[in-house]
Amino acid sequence: MTETASRPTLEAVAARAGVSRATVSRVVNGGDGVREPLVERVRQAVEELGYVPNQAARSLVTKRHDAIAVVIAEPETRVFADPFFALQLRGISKELTAHDNQLVLLLTEGRDDHARVARYLAGGHVDGALVFSLHLHDPLPGLIQGAGVPTVFGGRPGWSDGTRDVVYVDSDNRGGAREAVRLLAGLGRTRIAHITGPLDQTSAADRLDGYREVMGDSEPQLVVESDFTPGGAERAMRELLARRPDLDAVFAANDLAASGALRVLRAHGRRVPEDVAVVGFDDMLPVAEQSDPPLTTVRQDIEEMGRIMARLLLRRLDRRVRDEETGAVVLPTTLVRRASA
After folding, report:
1. Cα-based angle 202, 172, 284 (whole degrees, multiple of 5)
2. Taking the model in full, what pTM does it have?
């Protein structure tokens, strides 16, 4: 058997720093009213002894838990299969870690999960929530609002009733889609198809709007709704080829969809880009660079979106920052040319 060293206490830190226990408590738990020389002595003693503040005691002083819930309105099979979510979570995690906050990941599979998430948020376990991948008529926003938790959304929310104070981070989905389709039209392609994402999500709807702003809506046979997955895009691509075997270009609503479209085109003997040019959306490098051929796509900075979401929420939680300093942020997109178009 081995003896476990006892954890350093507030009293031990106070003795090392030569101050009172109350002074140590105020310093380590974020209180005010301690002169800077004493603060430095306490911090040095904390470092020397390896003292770890008790989170429960700290929360009593600061009224903060230093924990942020990240709520993704998708089942885990989708979240862990799509690198988009990994990139966004990486950005969020980096920003929260830099400010000594913990990330609590919550996924929703169905109605029961919505209620569970709402109960957890209302229970006072976290300081705020970052929510993304919402679908139209998703009950989560209303449930979160009822829980009274400060929230930042990833992506433009789908409601427009004007009754909720909405803070969100998004990319210029419509503008990026326009640029993609204009590239294809500029290459002389005239029968440009679009494989959409799920149209109950604003990102997919905005990209469809961008496509229509260039192409119009005179050829509905060239548009098939899909679900942002390779399998869904394969089914959509087969349907498009059956409808319009003469199509000469495809704008896919994300890179995973473009990869599925490429596989079907290859199986049907269509050369890319000679017979059919293909453009995606996201520029997720593991997908775009390893596609055959490498994928021309619209780049959105997914990791930076996550960082900004976390940064906006932490600012809202900071009492020194006024509410008007937060709001909606829409990041620009850029077209990245590779071999597929």
Report:
1. 90
2. 0.81
